[in-house]
Protein: SnoaL-like domain-containing protein
Organism: Lacinutrix gracilariae
Amino acid sequence: MKKILLSATIILAIGFTSCKSQKANSITKKEGKMEISNKEKVITLLKSIETGAQEPVSYINPNKYTQHNLGVSDGLEGFGALLQQLPPNSAKVNTVRAFEDGDFVFTQTDYQFFGPKIGFDIFRFEDGKIVEHWDNLQEKPEHPNPSGNTMIDGTIEIKDINKTEENKTLVKNFVEDILVNGKMEKLAGYFDGDNYIQHNPNIANGLSGLGKALEYMASKGITMKYNKVHRVLGEGNFVLTVSEGSFADKNTSFYDLFRVENGKIAEHWDVMETIAPKGEWKNDNGKF
């Protein structure tokens, strides 16, 4: 039951405390009336779980809502069933970053919901309505990583919108070359020397920090493998990849957010989640 409740977190995760620079473009004027963007719809809908506002649920298509959180039943019925188990006034949520790429909105969230969690959401829209949802959750660590960085601090500003596709290609190539295919001879080419800010809770900054972490995992017999990149989304200098693989011999979903600067990877955030056995799934839509 606890697992099911925790899996609702992503649906509840995004607050109005999203960065001001992202909200600046969230409202557009159409036919004399103000219409909020898809990004703002996601923020408003999920914040309503904390505030109790009723109107934002209208942003979901009631006849078509596909759920990929494996601990939540499909459709609005599954969404509602989980919310009924939430103690009143217990959710505290904060949108740290929110992005929009075509019909997709993706977010990074820091929240308190049956314990502290960090998570990513992806929502797909059709005709202005939410029709599909994916997420990834990880327990929030008590302490920063060896370089003093948390899982959610760091650069927020979205820029270089005209380089979105270029940056998506760069990051996709990095994940496939290095993490999927292990072409380590190409690693240095994706970075500006050792200038690399790392937000993974167990890894220090720079390629040197990554190398030490990999050595430590190897000494403990811990393996990490990316098998397939399922999705690449981006807005300006930020790119999110959704990948499938294994960590410590367990099927794992990897969500990695990268910031690109001057054609090099400059900063990284991530969330890893073990994929539940199929017998425990609450829907048949799959994690990806």
